Amino acid sequence: MFSLYTDAATQPESGLSAGGILLIHDHQQTQEKVALTATNNHTAEFEIATIALTRLRDQLGAAAGETTVLFHTDSQIVSQSLAKHYAKHYQAEVDRLLSVQSAFQLVLTEWVPEKQNQGAHTLANQALHAREADVK
């Protein structure tokens, strides 16, 4: 089983976004910081979740079909949209994420408070600060 934590950070004034991915498997942690194309936080949350699951799927190859993923997000819209398979303003993002999830045997999505998602949160903020520094 894989435990996957994602978070996004967006600077509203500049529209810059970045994400953090924390993957835990067999007591080993993998951390990644990602620049995102999204210009608002909700879209960024969907984007980082899709990127994280796509990278895990690609890494596992055919074994993804036998893999269970515990996906943790502090984004209520991502969590609720996945549960309902619907989001009024983000349906394309929901559909992309559900499509990627279908490669796995099972993806269990759990909403967690921000304080329980500090690893991914910190990575997202570090990546955003790096992007802002590059622009200045």
From TrEMBL:
This is Ribonuclease HI. Coiled coil: none annotated. It comes from the Bacteria. InterPro entries: RNaseH-like_sf (IPR012337), RNaseH_domain (IPR002156), RNaseH_sf (IPR036397). Residues 6-127 form the RNase H type-1 domain.
